[in-house]
TrEMBL record:
Protein name listed in UniProt: Heme biosynthesis protein HemY
InterPro entries for the chain: ATAP, ATAP_core_dom, FeS_cluster_insertion_CS, HesB-like_dom_sf
Species whose genome carries this gene: Sinisalibacter lacisalsi
Domain Core: 8-106
One Pfam short name: Fe-S_biosyn
């Protein structure tokens, strides 16, 4: 049986959520895995209201939250949810050790 470790959310991701006021509006960053995309699975990242059954990851002050539904959680075992800023833009990114390949778009992967 494979050991499934929870995903990790970086301080940079929580800081960005605070900058955009997600916690102030009661929203959380939702990270989900769906079928589709050019590699078989794709990430769906949005600001959303937490719902029953979500696994919640909170910042150290408890103000900012990242939520993942129970179906998506195994696909994100031991992943790192981060925020990056580059010349071409800024975005939340997922470093997923379970992905065997990924697409150049950064949101599509296969397992």
């Amino acid at each position: 049986m494979d050991l499934q470790l929870p995903p990790k959310v970086t301080d940079r991701a929580f800081t960005r959520l605070a900058e955009i006021g997600a916690g102030d509006s009661g929203k959380a960053l939702r990270v989900a895995v769906e079928g589709g995309g050019c590699s078989g699975f794709q990430y769906d990242i949005s600001l959303d209201d937490p719902t029953d059954g979500d696994v919640v990851f909170e910042s150290s002050d408890g103000h900012e939250r990242v939520v993942i539904d129970e179906v998506s959680l195994p696909f994100l075992s031991n992943a790192v949810i981060d925020f990056t800023e580059e010349l071409i833009g800024a975005r939340f990114v997922i470093e997923n050790p379970n992905a065997t390949s990924s697409c150049g778009c950064g949101t599509s992967f296969s397992m």
